Amino acid sequence: SDSSSTESLERAHQVLESVWGYDSFRPLQEEAVRDVIHGRDSLVVLPTGGGKSLCYQVPALVRDGMAVVVSPLISLMKDQVDALTNNGVAAALVNSTQTNDQKRETADRIRRGEIKILYLAPERLLTAKTMDFLRGVPISFFAIDEAHCVSNWGHDFRPEYRGLRVLKEQFPNASVHAFTATASQLVRDDIAEQLNLENPHVLVGNFDRPNLTYRMVRNAGKMNQIQHFIQKHPGESGVVYCITRKEVEQTSAALAGTGVRVLPYHAGLSDEERQSNQEAFIQEKVDVIVATVAFGMGIDKSNVRYVIHAGMPKSIEHYQQESGRAGRDGLAAECVLIHGPGDVMSWKRILENGDRNNFDAAMQSLNSMAALCNGVHCRHAALVEYFGQEYDADNCNACDVCLGELDVVEDPITLSQKILSCVVRLKERYGAGHTVKVLTGSRDQKVLQAGHDELSTYGLLSNDGAAAVRTWIDQLISQNHLVSVGEYHSLRLTPSGRELLRGEGQVSLTRVATRSSASNAGRDSW
Ligand code: ADP
């Protein structure tokens, strides 16, 4: 009834204060807590650090019975259970590192109704034995942490999450609540579908990070660009993300050579070395950590003043998460992404050697990331829109686009027409590299042998240089006027590309930011 649910919500506030010592819920937390108390299935999307755990931990203490939390990582599970136990909450976990005696003891405590929150990995929960056991226990609800793992449209698909759809069927009286930090609309719909959620309430938090300034710049001598940027932040903490371990080693060594206090971090180092490098960064014995994506899980250092990406991440989810490690204290921080045409190809090679079932989804994520890099739309807006939020401000004043740092081409339609007509003259059978050569009038053997120096578009952009023309092709691809198809990545016009060729439609092109032009470009530039 209404009065009892009001009471429960009041209880939730009391619990928040008495157990955690917090005065109030954050706006979305309160709504999320209400759904759990009412037993309405829900999907909660909150950025990292947004406070997802309390959304299920608080109601677990308010509701009768035991809550089951599904979490993929044993180490994170243990941290959570330790923290809860320290706060006096009856929480437990069962995992493979425990002895049979320990497991039995936990089972006994559950039977006696002494446990309010039980943490399990999905593969353990779904064993026949555990399911049988839990059917005999009054379960209040299931909380699924890292719920994007259930979707193979997400960036971290885990097959064992798929089995979780049986929960709704096997525990008809328990509600199911999914939590994730990263989910596009597509992934969100898929999570609800895969978990068989019943009329779920979808709550999406605020993904905007107004204190971060974003810049996406072209690779124009990456090492110099990184050094130049770090020099702007003497003595401040920063993270440099690289795609491969080898790049981490090289970049870290090069920076150390110029006197930067820096250490590397990647999965190829020993556990001890990783641990000690991470500690050195947290305790500010070094300023900079150069890392692969392996760095950052569960790291809570609030005064990171900048994050540099020395290459494109493989998804916007990754970018949001990694760049989001800057400025957690709410003070101004800078995020710079250095990208080049080779990045997509490098990732594609890596993905081709990975799980083929995920290949299409992974390529789609990669292409969205490339479109963001090559786009000329406000970065704050582009990021939150990707996560399904609207962005209100006309000018964020905190990205290269809104700060007017991009060197925008004045007549982009005419320039696009030159490029697109060259693609048509090449019968849409050649890739970007060859097209660039033709447009810039290269004397390359392949161009001459094919007789492409005879084409009317040969040398049409010879004053602009190959790098610039390459960028424009990438920009036309990311704005969906060109696509690159097939084994040879042949360029083809899309329907909107054909319109553009007729002088219709919209396009926006920018010039390559060389280091010197970028460093003249405005107050916070580099
Ligand atoms: P997430 O799982 O979404 O990344 P956490 O649940 O780990 O985030 O919460 C992030 C931090 O915010 C934690 O230190 C947590 O104690 C704190 N926090 C969460 N909710 C509140 C609140 N209502 N008031 C104050 N601090 C909070």
UniProtKB/TrEMBL annotation:
<dbReference type="GO" id="GO:0016787">
    <property type="term" value="F:hydrolase activity"/>
</dbReference>
<feature type="domain" description="Helicase C-terminal">
    <location>
        <begin position="222"/>
        <end position="370"/>
    </location>
</feature>
<keyword id="KW-0234">DNA repair</keyword>
<protein>
    <recommendedName>
        <fullName>DNA helicase RecQ</fullName>
        <ecNumber>5.6.2.4</ecNumber>
    </recommendedName>
</protein>
<dbReference type="GO" id="GO:0003678">
    <property type="term" value="F:DNA helicase activity"/>
</dbReference>
<keyword id="KW-0479">Metal-binding</keyword>
<keyword id="KW-0347">Helicase</keyword>
<keyword id="KW-0378">Hydrolase</keyword>
<keyword id="KW-0413">Isomerase</keyword>
<keyword id="KW-0862">Zinc</keyword>
<keyword id="KW-0547">Nucleotide-binding</keyword>
<comment type="similarity">
    <text>Belongs to the helicase family. RecQ subfamily.</text>
</comment>
<feature type="domain" description="Helicase ATP-binding">
    <location>
        <begin position="33"/>
        <end position="201"/>
    </location>
</feature>
<keyword id="KW-0067">ATP-binding</keyword>
<keyword id="KW-0227">DNA damage</keyword>
<keyword id="KW-0233">DNA recombination</keyword>
<keyword id="KW-0238">DNA-binding</keyword>
